[in-house]
Amino acid sequence: MKSLFQRFWPQLIIVALWLIFSSPYFLKGLVPFPSDYLVTFFPPWSAEYGMPVKNNAMPDVITQIFPWKKLTIETWKSGAIPLWNPYSFSGTPHAGNYQSAVFSPINLLFFVLPFIDAWSILILLQPLLAGLLMYLFVRSLDRSKEASLLASTAFMFCGFMVVWMAYGTLGYAALFLPLIFWGINKRSGLAISLGIALSLLSGHFQVSVYVVIASLAYILWRRKWPLMLFLVIGILIAAPQILLGFKSFLLSTRGETIVKGEIIPWQYLLTFIAPDFFGNPVTRNDWFGHYAEWAGFIGVIPLMLALFSIRKKLAEGWFFVILAAVTLLFALPTPLNNLLYALKIPVLSGSAASRIIILTSFSLATIAGYGVDALKDKKNSFLFSLASISFVGVIWIVLLFGKPLPVDTLAIARHNFILPSVLVVLASAAFVLRKKFVIYILIALAAADVLRFAIKWMPFEERQYVYPEIKSLTYLSTHVGNDRVFGNIGSGEVGVKFGIPLVEGYDAVYQSRYGEFMSVVSKGHVYPPERSVVQFDKYGVYKTEALQLLGIRYIYHRWSDGRNVWAFPYWEYVDAGVMHSSYRDEQYIVYEYNGAYPRAFLASSYVVATDDREIIDTLFAPEFNRRDTLILEQKPLLEPEPGPASAKIVSYAPTKVSIETTSQTAKLLFLSDTYDAGWEATVDGKKSPVYRADYDFRAVAVPAGDHKVVFRYHPKEFRWGIILSVIGLGGLVVLLKHK
To answer: Distance between CA 413 and CA 279 in Å, rounded?
Structure first.
């Protein structure tokens, strides 16, 4: 037992630190999810709850990530592949939005644990895996156990890993980087390929691109050219996700516009020493910057060790100095950042520039390991102590006598700079002790620093408040069927969590054509859509026409909203006799709109138009009969004719919709779900073309008689991705077998 401890004590310390961080879950049953924030600020729960909120800086976890994960797992469990989301944007690609992480192996947790516990383990595993993999990598650089432990501690709880931990995507995309670098050092093709693939499947393409670029650069630096083949194999393995994501990107507003944003200001570099120098959203005293996007903290002591070690002979460690410097310059307002934006490179030029800071943090943590080993020299230890105290002293002189900030913000900066200063002084004082204790004191102080930072940020809250049951939501979930709902439901993608079909949505890569359609509803003409959000304009020019065409039968309304925050002019429809209440409780009322078209109906005629403006002008013309005439962009195979007809949706699943039709003449079947080239249709088992109708919806020609029309979502990008993935896996097996 003693020999095992002597061999694995650093790994045990990493696990111990992780257990301390995760103890609210294991000991108290709390979950790493901002549930207090959910029920306090997001309707409909905010009408019934109200409580203190720890962290209100992670709304996307509530409005996107958790609902998407719910849809992903439920679809997998139903035996289907989660390629499509029918509940947002009147239907939208699901796997293609990338952050849904549909193909991530970590999803297997949800097949063996209750959902909220699987979610908790998914979130909490990130720092543990990051720490263990970082230790493995730094040891492969011939660093001591102590050096590797400190580097691991700095990386597993670095700013980037902590502030994005609750999302369960960006952290996973980044944490496989040390595994890949270990594979490069050890010439392990398996580690390289799996690390690349796992990163690309983790749910954040931008971070994965950084990982791939850094890995390629390291291979070139180490001159291990043959290993590039394993990097390519890793990309091939993840091809289904990559191709689907690329397709969605091209069809989104992100594929059409590049916006420069989230560049870290020079003064924000002070947070590398004191992360709360400019305040913290948790304590509600943040007054400058974007805390989550700009977090470059790795701990005071690791940073000082990293800076100190640069003056020593680093050998292969110079790669990490260069990587840290270059990536930091890309994140700051520098010519390099301007050049990247000017090049208009998809993903890299138009995304949050600051997220490249993960490579800076990884590099600095690695260099800090070199600094630990350099401190074994007494002279070096003294210089480190002197340099550290001098640096902190200069900042204190400015804070105390320079008065560079207003009084209130200066007080925050001074207060939040005390702890980093104390840590530096304690670390420096440790050098007067016996040499063999100094390094362990530094490790302990560094661990305490980053652990405090992580615990302060991460919410652990009551599981009973994770989307708790609301009577009105239960009514919608059980009564609306395939009809759509419009209302103030939690913002973003919360409707996905409850299987409620909505016309709105929140996704960075939603289809821009649908956004254009909704802009017409709002303004009366095509207008550049928002980059991430589609909202139904309650007072839009064509709101009534859209209510009809999109099949919005239910309006979800809070009683007080008629004169306060969120108000739909339901009274116009009630007075006209086309809307009545179908449900009411103490907080909410549900109105049913009689004028909504069926989600699927048969039309008797069509017009062909290929110009977008002509389509819009025709579709919303007062004299145009949208219930019986469709606008197609090509001539259908059959000519529809007037006559009695009916259509009924008999089954509706995310990637498969079955409709039974009856008609005495040929008809056009209209489905008010968004058009996507990946949708295929069969009529009685025979393939039939799917036409884009009424600007962005679906139609199929059906002959006279009784028929069954089945829509299936099976995009060619997914088929090609599977082929490439099989090729990649096969190539990996062959290469490993003949190694």
So the answer is: 7
Q: Tokens 């008010």 map to which residue?
A: 672
Q: Is the pLDDT of residue 376 over 70?
A: no
Query: Contact, 279 vs 416, CB < 8 A?
Result: yes
For 438-481, give the secondary structure using H, E and C: HHHHHHHHHHHHHHHHHHHHCCCECHHHCCCCCHHHHHHHHHCC
Beta-carbon contacts of 538 under 8 Å, excluding residues fewer than 6 positions away, are: 567, 568, 569
Contact predicate 202/104, CB 8 Å: yes
Strand partners, 663: 645, 705
For residue range 434-453, list pLDDT tens digits in order.
566 788 888 999 999 999 99
Neighbours of 6 (CB within 10 A): 9
Q: Tokens 């902590």 belong to which residue? A: 162
CA separation for the pair 399, 382 (Å, rounded):
26
* CB-based contact 683:707 (threshold 8 Å): yes
How close are the terminal C-alpha atoms of the chain, in Å?
36
Count CA within 13 A, CB hemisphere, residue 112: 7
Residue 502 has pLDDT above 60, yes or no: yes
The whole-angstrom separation of Cα 203 and Cα 99 is 4
- Token pair, residue 214, equals 């850094």
- Give the per-residue pLDDT at 562: 47
Quote the CA–CA distance of 192 and 231 in Å, as a whole number. Answer: 6
d(CA 58, CA 227): 38
Classify strands 629-632 and 605-608 as parallel, antiparallel or unpaired: parallel
Phi first, then psi: what are they for 76, rounded to 5°?
A: -60, -45
Angle, helices 2-28 vs 435-457, to 10°: value is 20
Note whether 549 and 694 are within 8 A (CB): yes
Provide long-range contacts, Cβ within 8 A and 24+ apart, for 322-325: 323/214, 323/217, 323/359, 323/360, 323/363, 324/359, 324/360, 324/363, 324/364, 324/367
CB-based contacts of 542: which residues, under 8 Å, 6+ apart?
A: 520, 521, 524, 620
Q: Which of 177-186, 245-254, 428-437 has the highest mean pLDDT?
A: 177-186
Please give the structure tokens belonging to residue 565.
């925050």
| pLDDT surpasses 60 at 694 | yes
Residue 336 CB partners (closer than 8 Å, separation 6+): 326, 329, 330
How is residue 613 written in tokens?
């403006």
Q: Give the model's confidence band at 377: pLDDT under 50 very low, under 70 low, under 90 confident, else very high.
A: low
Closest CA to 678 of 666, 667, 692: 692
Strands 484-487 and 552-558: parallel
Q: Residues 255-272: pLDDT tens digits?
A: 666 667 778 999 999 999
Residue 372 pLDDT class (50, 70, 90 cuts):
confident
pLDDT at 379: 63
Tens of pLDDT, residues 546-591: 999 999 999 999 886 444 566 788 888 988 889 999 999 988 999 9
Output the CA torsion sign for 301, 302, 308, 312: positive
CB–CB of 161/134 below 8 Å?
no
Among 53, 535, 76, residue whose Cα is nearest residue 281: 53
Domain residue spans of the chain: 2-69+83-457, 601-711
Closest among 499, 467, 505, 507 to 483, alpha carbons compared: 499
Task: Report residue 362: phi and psi, to 5°.
Answer: -60, -45
CA–CA gap between residue 677 and residue 690 (Å, rounded): 8
Peptide bond connecting 44 to the previous residue in cis, omega within 30 degrees of 0: yes
For residue 137, the SS3 value is helix
Output the CA torsion sign for 135, 138, 139, 143: negative
